[in-house]
Specification:
The chain has 197 residues and is mainly beta. The protein folds into two domains: 58 residues; 91 residues, Rod shape-determining protein MreC, domain 2 (Thrombin, subunit H), CATH 2.40.10. It is built from two helices and 13 strands. The termini are close together.
């Protein structure tokens, strides 16, 4: 019998404030497990406090759910890593409107510590308050590769303005991740193939 690949699905923690006050719950949309199963793999739910090394030994790959981009690893130490947040003044991430994928710009530091702006979006592009912003990935036909694949959640548009004399729209974005109170993050790295059992 052929062994099915095992795909870890990260789950979210409700510390007792959303589902049932006073009781901790782990949760994830059933659609993730169904999609993994339909693709011919075995879904395995991975809680946020799971030992990452052990999970990597058991799983052939991971589906990261509910996660949002927080930044880029800039330095690695034996037990920790330094992450430059997307709100850092030197950070720039090619991003797009999830509803209108032709609306692409550069996500950069905003006017306050944890605010973001989507710059370089032409006035002819459609974007509205409440739209979801995702990473845009690498531009087609370009030799400039993006650090981030297309489709990672980034934030929500909170305001869109444009003046007649401006070339680009002024788009404010609220990040999905609470960048001011991060304690730990999940790092996505390429995985070496596991030997067959």
């Amino acid at each position: 019998m052929t062994r099915l690949p095992t795909i870890g699905i990260t789950v979210s923690l409700d510390p007792g404030t959303r589902i049932r006050p006073g009781t901790e719950y782990l949760y994830v949309s059933r659609a993730y497990a169904r999609a993994v199963h339909d693709a011919g793999a075995l879904p395995l739910l991975v809680p946020p406090d799971a030992d990452a090394a052990r999970a990597a030994r058991v799983c052939d790959g991971f589906v990261v759910t509910g996660g949002a981009l927080v930044g880029q690893v800039t330095k690695v130490f034996p037990e920790t890593a330094r992450v430059m947040l997307i709100s850092d003044p030197s950070s720039a991430v090619r991003s797009a409107d999830a509803r209108n994928r032709a609306t692409v710009g550069m996500l950069e530091h905003g006017s306050t510590a944890d605010s973001l702006v989507l710059n370089r979006v032409g006035k002819d592009k459609r974007v509205e308050n409440g739209d979801t912003i995702i990473t845009a990935g690498s531009p087609g036909g370009s030799e400039l590769l993006s650090l981030f694949p297309r489709g990672i959640l980034v934030g929500k548009v909170t305001s869109v303005n444009q003046r007649d004399t401006d070339i680009f729209k002024h788009i404010q974005v609220e990040p999905f991740a609470d960048l001011g109170s991060l304690q730990s993050v999940q790092v996505l790295v390429p995985k070496k193939p596991r030997p067959s059992r």
